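Weekly structure sync, notes
Attendees: PL (lead), two postdocs, one rotation student
Agenda item 3: pending single-chain targets
PL asked that the sequence for the first pending target be pasted directly into the notes so everyone works from the same version. It is reproduced below exactly as submitted, 31 residues in total.
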Amino acid sequence: MVLAFEILLILVTVVIAWFGLYVLYRLFTES
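Predicted structure, written out during the meeting:
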């Protein structure tokens, strides 16, 4: 159960990181 929770936490962290990078990329390319 703990392993599944850690995997889910890692997946959420990766998704948030990718979303943040995408937003920064869009902001820099628009200006």
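Discussion points:
- The mean pLDDT is 95.
- The two ends are 46 Å apart (CA to CA).
Action: rotation student to compare against the earlier draft before next sync.
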